[in-house]
UniProtKB/TrEMBL annotation:
Belongs to the universal ribosomal protein uS8 family. The lineage of its organism: Eukaryota, Viridiplantae, Streptophyta, Embryophyta, Tracheophyta. Keywords: Ribonucleoprotein, Ribosomal protein. It comes from Penstemon davidsonii. This is 40S ribosomal protein S15a. Gene3D superfamilies: 3.30.1370.30, 3.30.1490.10. It holds the Pfam family Ribosomal_S8.
């Protein structure tokens, strides 16, 4: 299995939304992907999802609503402690000021 499973799954969802499909099939299955889809369902970005045969390679069928415009994942995952979360966000994620600098130039 590849290391960018979540990123590939999110790109599949975005591409299916752009083409106007009602559902998308994601494979292989991971627990992180299922947790992320649960959050997307809770916030109203997808209608529902079903995990088929999770103990093997399996697949996930996602029912789409048409609300996802763009969605990406950071291509690597790091285990960090909760105490260092704010420090990590300010160091690793891009700032809002970057857009202003590029707009001026």
């Amino acid at each position: 299995m590849g290391r960018r499973i979540l990123n590939e799954a999110l790109r599949t969802i975005v591409n299916a939304e752009k083409r106007g499909f009602a559902s998308a099939e994601l494979n292989p299955v991971s627990n992180v992907m299922a947790s992320f889809l649960q959050i997307m369902k809770y916030r109203g970005y997808i209608k529902d999802f079903q995990v088929h045969d999770a103990h093997r390679v399996g697949k996930i069928t996602v029912q789409l609503l048409g609300r996802v415009k763009d969605c990406r994942a950071i291509t690597y995952r790091q285990d960090i402690k909760a105490d260092y979360l704010e420090k990590y966000k300010t160091r690793a994620l891009p700032t809002h000021q970057v857009r202003v600098v590029f707009a001026i130039q």
